[in-house]
Design brief:
The protein has 126 residues and is mainly alpha-helical. It has one domain: 3-Layer(aba) Sandwich (Rossmann fold), CATH 3.40.50.620. 53% of the residues lie in helices and 11% in strands. The strands form two sheets. It has a two-stranded parallel ribbon. Strands 3-4 form a two-stranded antiparallel ribbon. It is globular and about 50 Å long. The two termini are 24 Å apart.
């Protein structure tokens, strides 16, 4: 439901902007890099690439059924996407916008974030 909600909202905005005569490039897709992917693939008796292929096809079918007006469907495993990300990462690293450092925390697989102990206690996370 979460992906459908945000994609439908983005589609409405894209359509409205097109009605205003603005040039719109509406990009959607699938994020195929996280621990949840590997866990889900293993639970299905599949590999992460095969699992991601099936999921991305399911989303494309859903967006077609919902008449979503996207221009590009991007998979984070696509080589073109990876090349763009590498170039972007190189630039922000060279500019000092990001840096390497050690971080200690508890990784929350479901929300894909590091949490500190205070957050875990406040939100009753396990």
């Amino acid at each position: 439901m979460g992906s459908a909600y945000s994609t439908i909202a983005a589609d409405a905005i894209a359509r409205f902007q097109r009605l205003l005569g603005k040039k719109v490039i509406f990009i959607t897709g699938t994020d195929e890099h996280c621990e949840k992917i590997a866990t889900a693939a293993m639970a299905q008796g599949s590999t992460p690439p095969d699992h991601c292929y099936l999921i991305s096809q399911a989303y494309r079918t859903l967006w077609k059924d919902l008449d979503i007006s996207y221009d590009k469907f991007i998979r984070t495993t696509d080589s073109k996407h990876q090349a763009i990300v590498k170039e972007f990462y190189s630039r922000v690293l060279a500019n000092g916008d990001i840096y390497r450092a050690d971080y200690e925390g508890i990784y929350c697989v479901s929300c894909e974030e590091y949490k500190d102990e205070k957050e875990l206690l406040e939100n009753n996370w396990e």
